[in-house]
Description:
Elements: E1 9-12, E2 34-37, H1 45-52, E3 57-60, H2 69-72, E4 80-83, H3 93-98, E5 102-105, H4 111-125, H5 128-136, E6 152-156, H6 160-171, E7 175-179, H7 185-190, E8 194-195, H8 198-204, E9 207-210, H9 224-228, E10 235-238, H10 247-255, E11 261-264, E12 284-286, H11 295-316
Parallel strand pairs: 1-2, 1-3, 3-4, 4-5, 6-7, 6-9, 7-8, 9-10, 10-11, 11-12
Helix pairs in contact: 4-6
Amino acid sequence: MGSNNKIPAVAVLDDYQNAALRLADWSVLDGRAAVTVFNDHLADADAVVERLKGFEVLCVMRERTPLPRAVLERLPRLKLIVSTGARNASIDMAAAQERGIAVAFTGYDSAPTIEMTWALILAASRHVVAENLAFRRGGWQQGVGVGLAGKTLGVLGLGRVGGAVAKIGVAFGMKVLTWSPHMTPERAAAAGATAVGKEELLRQSDVLTIHMVLSQKTRGLLGADDLALMKTSALLVNTSRGPIVDEAALVAALTSRKIALAALDVYDVEPLPADHPLRSLENVLGTPHIGYVADDLYRTFYGDTVKAVDAWLAARA
Protein backbone atom coordinates (compact mmCIF):
# COMPACT_ATOMS: atom_id res chain seq x y z
CA MET A 1 0.00 0.00 0.00
CA GLY A 2 1.23 3.52 -0.69
CA SER A 3 -0.03 7.01 -0.10
CA ASN A 4 -3.00 8.54 -1.79
CA ASN A 5 -2.63 12.19 -2.83
CA LYS A 6 -4.23 13.55 0.32
CA ILE A 7 -2.62 12.04 3.39
CA PRO A 8 0.79 10.46 4.07
CA ALA A 9 1.16 6.70 4.16
CA VAL A 10 2.65 5.24 7.35
CA ALA A 11 4.11 1.70 7.47
CA VAL A 12 4.55 -0.17 10.74
CA LEU A 13 7.10 -2.91 10.09
CA ASP A 14 7.73 -6.33 11.59
CA ASP A 15 4.85 -6.32 14.08
CA TYR A 16 5.32 -10.04 14.69
CA GLN A 17 2.77 -10.26 17.51
CA ASN A 18 0.18 -7.99 15.82
CA ALA A 19 0.53 -5.76 18.88
CA ALA A 20 1.07 -2.25 17.50
CA LEU A 21 -2.56 -1.23 17.08
CA ARG A 22 -3.59 -2.98 20.30
CA LEU A 23 -1.00 -1.46 22.63
CA ALA A 24 -1.20 2.20 21.57
CA ASP A 25 -3.93 4.67 20.65
CA TRP A 26 -3.46 5.46 16.97
CA SER A 27 -6.76 7.34 16.68
CA VAL A 28 -4.95 10.70 16.88
CA LEU A 29 -3.76 9.96 13.34
CA ASP A 30 -7.25 9.23 11.95
CA GLY A 31 -7.88 11.25 8.82
CA ARG A 32 -4.31 12.56 8.85
CA ALA A 33 -2.35 9.47 7.89
CA ALA A 34 -3.04 6.07 6.34
CA VAL A 35 -1.48 3.42 8.59
CA THR A 36 -0.55 -0.03 7.29
CA VAL A 37 0.81 -2.71 9.62
CA PHE A 38 3.04 -5.51 8.33
CA ASN A 39 3.31 -8.59 10.53
CA ASP A 40 5.76 -10.52 8.38
CA HIS A 41 9.49 -9.96 7.91
CA LEU A 42 11.20 -9.37 4.57
CA ALA A 43 14.94 -10.06 4.43
CA ASP A 44 15.53 -9.35 0.76
CA ALA A 45 16.41 -5.69 0.12
CA ASP A 46 14.61 -5.59 -3.23
CA ALA A 47 11.45 -6.92 -1.62
CA VAL A 48 11.75 -4.34 1.17
CA VAL A 49 12.05 -1.51 -1.36
CA GLU A 50 9.16 -2.77 -3.44
CA ARG A 51 6.92 -2.93 -0.38
CA LEU A 52 7.92 0.44 1.07
CA LYS A 53 8.52 2.70 -1.92
CA GLY A 54 5.13 4.42 -1.60
CA PHE A 55 5.41 5.32 2.09
CA GLU A 56 6.35 8.66 3.62
CA VAL A 57 6.79 7.29 7.15
CA LEU A 58 8.36 4.04 8.37
CA CYS A 59 7.89 2.83 11.94
CA VAL A 60 10.52 0.19 12.64
CA MET A 61 10.85 -2.19 15.56
CA ARG A 62 14.44 -2.13 16.81
CA GLU A 63 16.76 -3.61 14.15
CA ARG A 64 14.40 -6.13 12.59
CA THR A 65 14.46 -4.47 9.15
CA PRO A 66 17.78 -2.74 8.40
CA LEU A 67 17.66 0.56 6.52
CA PRO A 68 21.11 0.93 4.94
CA ARG A 69 22.00 3.54 2.32
CA ALA A 70 21.24 1.11 -0.52
CA VAL A 71 17.64 0.86 0.68
CA LEU A 72 17.11 4.49 1.68
CA GLU A 73 18.29 5.74 -1.72
CA ARG A 74 15.51 3.75 -3.35
CA LEU A 75 12.71 5.14 -1.17
CA PRO A 76 12.12 8.56 -2.77
CA ARG A 77 8.96 9.38 -0.82
CA LEU A 78 10.37 8.63 2.61
CA LYS A 79 10.38 11.61 4.98
CA LEU A 80 10.38 10.12 8.50
CA ILE A 81 11.71 7.02 10.24
CA VAL A 82 10.56 6.30 13.77
CA SER A 83 12.56 3.57 15.49
CA THR A 84 11.73 1.98 18.81
CA GLY A 85 14.50 2.24 21.37
CA ALA A 86 17.07 4.94 22.00
CA ARG A 87 19.29 4.01 19.04
CA ASN A 88 19.26 1.77 15.98
CA ALA A 89 22.58 0.76 14.45
CA SER A 90 20.85 -0.70 11.38
CA ILE A 91 19.71 2.75 10.15
CA ASP A 92 22.28 4.61 8.04
CA MET A 93 21.96 7.96 9.78
CA ALA A 94 24.29 9.76 7.37
CA ALA A 95 22.30 8.59 4.35
CA ALA A 96 19.05 9.62 6.03
CA GLN A 97 20.41 13.09 6.80
CA GLU A 98 21.68 13.55 3.26
CA ARG A 99 18.24 12.75 1.89
CA GLY A 100 16.41 14.97 4.37
CA ILE A 101 14.82 12.03 6.15
CA ALA A 102 14.08 12.78 9.80
CA VAL A 103 14.80 10.01 12.30
CA ALA A 104 13.07 9.82 15.69
CA PHE A 105 13.48 7.37 18.56
CA THR A 106 11.24 6.23 21.41
CA GLY A 107 11.66 5.67 25.12
CA TYR A 108 13.27 2.50 26.41
CA ASP A 109 13.45 0.47 29.61
CA SER A 110 16.14 -2.13 30.34
CA ALA A 111 14.04 -4.07 32.87
CA PRO A 112 12.57 -6.64 30.42
CA THR A 113 16.04 -7.62 29.15
CA ILE A 114 17.40 -7.87 32.68
CA GLU A 115 14.49 -10.14 33.62
CA MET A 116 14.93 -12.23 30.46
CA THR A 117 18.62 -12.71 31.17
CA TRP A 118 17.83 -14.24 34.53
CA ALA A 119 14.96 -16.28 33.08
CA LEU A 120 17.49 -17.87 30.72
CA ILE A 121 20.13 -18.39 33.40
CA LEU A 122 17.68 -20.08 35.75
CA ALA A 123 15.92 -22.12 33.07
CA ALA A 124 19.18 -23.38 31.62
CA SER A 125 20.76 -24.16 35.01
CA ARG A 126 17.76 -26.15 36.18
CA HIS A 127 16.85 -27.71 32.81
CA VAL A 128 13.37 -26.23 33.00
CA VAL A 129 12.45 -26.80 29.35
CA ALA A 130 13.63 -30.42 29.26
CA GLU A 131 11.93 -31.21 32.56
CA ASN A 132 8.69 -29.62 31.40
CA LEU A 133 8.72 -31.59 28.15
CA ALA A 134 9.36 -34.80 30.06
CA PHE A 135 6.63 -33.90 32.54
CA ARG A 136 4.14 -33.47 29.69
CA ARG A 137 5.07 -36.92 28.40
CA GLY A 138 4.48 -38.49 31.81
CA GLY A 139 8.08 -38.42 33.01
CA TRP A 140 9.41 -37.41 36.42
CA GLN A 141 12.80 -35.93 37.40
CA GLN A 142 14.91 -36.57 34.34
CA GLY A 143 18.12 -34.79 35.33
CA VAL A 144 20.06 -32.96 38.01
CA GLY A 145 20.18 -29.20 37.84
CA VAL A 146 23.00 -26.86 38.78
CA GLY A 147 22.67 -24.55 41.79
CA LEU A 148 23.91 -20.98 41.49
CA ALA A 149 24.71 -20.02 45.10
CA GLY A 150 28.47 -19.98 45.56
CA LYS A 151 29.14 -20.16 41.81
CA THR A 152 30.90 -17.45 39.81
CA LEU A 153 28.91 -15.13 37.57
CA GLY A 154 30.95 -13.38 34.90
CA VAL A 155 29.40 -10.20 33.49
CA LEU A 156 30.84 -8.97 30.20
CA GLY A 157 29.89 -5.28 30.21
CA LEU A 158 28.46 -3.45 33.21
CA GLY A 159 26.07 -0.89 31.78
CA ARG A 160 22.37 -0.52 32.62
CA VAL A 161 21.62 -4.18 31.92
CA GLY A 162 24.89 -5.73 33.05
CA GLY A 163 24.99 -3.73 36.27
CA ALA A 164 21.51 -4.86 37.28
CA VAL A 165 22.25 -8.46 36.28
CA ALA A 166 25.35 -8.36 38.49
CA LYS A 167 23.38 -7.12 41.51
CA ILE A 168 20.87 -9.94 41.09
CA GLY A 169 23.77 -12.39 40.98
CA VAL A 170 24.93 -11.04 44.33
CA ALA A 171 21.40 -11.54 45.69
CA PHE A 172 21.59 -15.19 44.58
CA GLY A 173 24.79 -15.61 46.59
CA MET A 174 27.08 -15.72 43.58
CA LYS A 175 30.61 -14.38 43.31
CA VAL A 176 30.40 -11.74 40.58
CA LEU A 177 33.30 -10.85 38.28
CA THR A 178 33.24 -8.32 35.47
CA TRP A 179 35.33 -7.08 32.56
CA SER A 180 35.02 -4.52 29.80
CA PRO A 181 37.70 -2.47 28.04
CA HIS A 182 37.22 0.56 30.31
CA MET A 183 36.19 -1.11 33.55
CA THR A 184 37.37 0.36 36.84
CA PRO A 185 37.44 -1.28 40.29
CA GLU A 186 35.13 1.43 41.61
CA ARG A 187 32.51 0.93 38.91
CA ALA A 188 32.60 -2.83 39.42
CA ALA A 189 32.27 -2.50 43.19
CA ALA A 190 29.18 -0.30 42.82
CA ALA A 191 27.41 -3.31 41.28
CA GLY A 192 28.77 -5.75 43.84
CA ALA A 193 31.31 -7.13 41.38
CA THR A 194 35.08 -7.45 41.16
CA ALA A 195 36.91 -6.18 38.09
CA VAL A 196 39.27 -8.73 36.50
CA GLY A 197 41.06 -9.24 33.21
CA LYS A 198 39.22 -10.73 30.26
CA GLU A 199 41.06 -14.06 30.39
CA GLU A 200 40.46 -14.42 34.12
CA LEU A 201 36.77 -13.70 33.60
CA LEU A 202 36.53 -16.45 30.99
CA ARG A 203 38.50 -18.98 33.05
CA GLN A 204 36.61 -18.47 36.31
CA SER A 205 32.99 -17.97 35.21
CA ASP A 206 30.48 -20.73 35.80
CA VAL A 207 27.94 -18.48 34.08
CA LEU A 208 29.16 -15.90 31.56
CA THR A 209 26.55 -13.34 30.51
CA ILE A 210 27.12 -10.75 27.77
CA HIS A 211 25.89 -7.16 28.01
CA MET A 212 27.83 -5.02 25.55
CA VAL A 213 26.76 -2.78 22.68
CA LEU A 214 27.56 -4.18 19.23
CA SER A 215 30.23 -2.11 17.50
CA GLN A 216 33.26 -2.67 15.30
CA LYS A 217 35.28 -3.16 18.50
CA THR A 218 32.93 -5.72 20.06
CA ARG A 219 32.02 -7.68 16.91
CA GLY A 220 33.62 -11.11 17.32
CA LEU A 221 34.84 -10.15 20.81
CA LEU A 222 34.57 -13.79 21.87
CA GLY A 223 36.19 -16.12 19.36
CA ALA A 224 37.35 -19.72 19.40
CA ASP A 225 40.43 -18.99 21.54
CA ASP A 226 38.29 -17.16 24.10
CA LEU A 227 35.70 -19.91 24.31
CA ALA A 228 38.50 -22.44 24.77
CA LEU A 229 39.45 -20.69 28.02
CA MET A 230 36.03 -21.31 29.57
CA LYS A 231 35.18 -24.15 31.92
CA THR A 232 33.76 -27.23 30.22
CA SER A 233 30.88 -26.95 32.69
CA ALA A 234 30.18 -23.29 31.86
CA LEU A 235 26.94 -21.69 30.70
CA LEU A 236 27.23 -18.84 28.18
CA VAL A 237 24.29 -16.42 28.05
CA ASN A 238 23.75 -13.79 25.37
CA THR A 239 20.82 -11.37 25.43
CA SER A 240 22.82 -8.52 23.89
CA ARG A 241 23.73 -9.01 20.21
CA GLY A 242 24.62 -12.22 18.40
CA PRO A 243 27.73 -11.06 16.52
CA ILE A 244 29.58 -10.23 19.75
CA VAL A 245 30.29 -13.98 19.82
CA ASP A 246 31.80 -15.71 16.79
CA GLU A 247 28.79 -17.86 15.93
CA ALA A 248 30.71 -20.60 14.09
CA ALA A 249 33.13 -20.88 17.00
CA LEU A 250 30.22 -21.08 19.44
CA VAL A 251 28.53 -23.84 17.45
CA ALA A 252 31.83 -25.76 17.38
CA ALA A 253 32.38 -25.31 21.12
CA LEU A 254 28.87 -26.50 21.93
CA THR A 255 29.04 -29.43 19.50
CA SER A 256 32.33 -30.63 21.00
CA ARG A 257 31.12 -29.86 24.54
CA LYS A 258 34.05 -27.54 25.18
CA ILE A 259 31.40 -25.54 27.01
CA ALA A 260 28.40 -27.23 28.53
CA LEU A 261 25.49 -24.95 27.65
CA ALA A 262 24.44 -21.78 25.89
CA ALA A 263 21.28 -19.76 26.53
CA LEU A 264 20.76 -17.42 23.58
CA ASP A 265 18.23 -14.77 22.69
CA VAL A 266 20.21 -13.11 19.87
CA TYR A 267 21.85 -14.33 16.66
CA ASP A 268 23.93 -13.21 13.69
CA VAL A 269 20.93 -13.41 11.36
CA GLU A 270 17.42 -12.81 12.64
CA PRO A 271 15.01 -14.47 12.29
CA LEU A 272 17.36 -17.42 12.70
CA PRO A 273 17.17 -19.75 9.66
CA ALA A 274 15.04 -22.82 10.33
CA ASP A 275 17.90 -25.21 9.56
CA HIS A 276 20.51 -23.42 11.69
CA PRO A 277 22.47 -25.80 13.98
CA LEU A 278 21.69 -23.66 17.05
CA ARG A 279 18.07 -24.75 16.65
CA SER A 280 18.91 -28.43 17.02
CA LEU A 281 21.79 -28.64 19.51
CA GLU A 282 20.59 -30.26 22.73
CA ASN A 283 22.79 -28.01 24.88
CA VAL A 284 21.27 -24.78 23.58
CA LEU A 285 18.33 -23.01 25.18
CA GLY A 286 17.22 -20.62 22.48
CA THR A 287 14.57 -17.92 22.38
CA PRO A 288 13.67 -15.67 19.41
CA HIS A 289 15.08 -12.28 20.55
CA ILE A 290 12.32 -11.62 23.06
CA GLY A 291 14.42 -9.93 25.73
CA TYR A 292 12.66 -6.62 25.13
CA VAL A 293 9.29 -8.10 24.09
CA ALA A 294 7.13 -7.20 27.10
CA ASP A 295 3.77 -5.46 27.27
CA ASP A 296 4.78 -2.34 29.20
CA LEU A 297 7.81 -1.69 27.00
CA TYR A 298 5.76 -2.28 23.86
CA ARG A 299 3.27 0.31 25.11
CA THR A 300 6.16 2.75 25.45
CA PHE A 301 7.51 1.82 22.03
CA TYR A 302 4.27 2.18 20.12
CA GLY A 303 2.87 5.02 22.22
CA ASP A 304 5.99 7.09 21.56
CA THR A 305 5.89 6.08 17.89
CA VAL A 306 2.39 7.55 17.59
CA LYS A 307 3.55 10.73 19.32
CA ALA A 308 6.48 11.10 16.90
CA VAL A 309 4.28 10.64 13.84
CA ASP A 310 1.70 13.04 15.30
CA ALA A 311 4.40 15.70 15.87
CA TRP A 312 5.72 15.27 12.34
CA LEU A 313 2.25 15.64 10.87
CA ALA A 314 1.61 18.76 12.96
CA ALA A 315 4.90 20.32 11.87
CA ARG A 316 4.13 19.89 8.19
CA ALA A 317 0.51 21.05 8.39
